[in-house]
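OP here, attaching both records as promised.
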Amino acid sequence: MSFEINGRLAEKYETQKVSDRFQKREFILEIKSTGATGYEFVDFIKFQSTQDKCSLLDQFNIDDTIKVSFNLRGRKWEKDGQVSYFTNLEAWRIEKLSNESTESAAPVQDNSQSQDAPFPSNPPENDSGFDDLPF
């Protein structure tokens, strides 16, 4: 499941080598939103990049306004009979935005076709009689 969110880069941390085959890098995005009453809410959301995506943050500075494309991931972990569940926001693309545009998270179009998608996401290039109208 892919999402995008815009916000201010509040913190970025060094890459952590968890094992010989796994590394991750975490960063914090500050998201501001206004409620129905006009009150401004501020959230600090932690993301992580893994493996070769750890270097994505190198070109960005604290206070930059960025757009983060990420996947929502969940894991189950068991140890000594105890079960824990973890949720991670795994960033796979980061883009710099102008400092005035921020918005909340929104799902993005996945390039792969889903079984419940009624229409192809990418119509054919040639004129083979393909009609993308639903009626």
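Record two, same layout:
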Amino acid sequence: MLVIKLGGSLYHSNYLAAWMSNLAAVQLTKIVLVPGGGPFADQVRTAEHTYPLQDTHSHAMALMAMQQFAWLLASLSDIFQPVSAIDAIHNYQGRHIIWLPYDTIMQQCDYPQNWQTTSDSLACWLAQKLDAEKLVLIKSQAVQQHEFDLRQHSGLLDDYFPQASTNYRGQISLYHASQSELVCEQISDE
């Protein structure tokens, strides 16, 4: 099983459709997409400038933003099935899943409920819970190398990621948003 986090910043790029198309063509492994928050999370940040939101409320709203982005991804490819519960992901007979994180995170995750924890750390949490072999994080910012090295990529990931990744035993890789063909070729070759 492979967990791939598609950063919300891909919403504003020309790469998002290519990712959905290329990933839909992969047949050899179960793929679980974790959505970023994108412009939906930006609206939560905007609301924080206008209203005195509690961190836990902003966190819940940011999870809903991820959920909205998940539905947008589902509309780009009818190959991917939106699924929320971890058991349902394990039991799903198909190979292409988009995770709806809200209920599972609100009920089961004990990570800090503030902006230190974003979809990066939540993708790692899910990868650990699923015992996924790999976690792939797709970013719009420049990535120096594909293999994960926290010292080189700390500015690209949320503040909680170092702690979130300590118990994950799988491989972590980072790729730029433009590298969908490369990632999908590597997945297909394994």
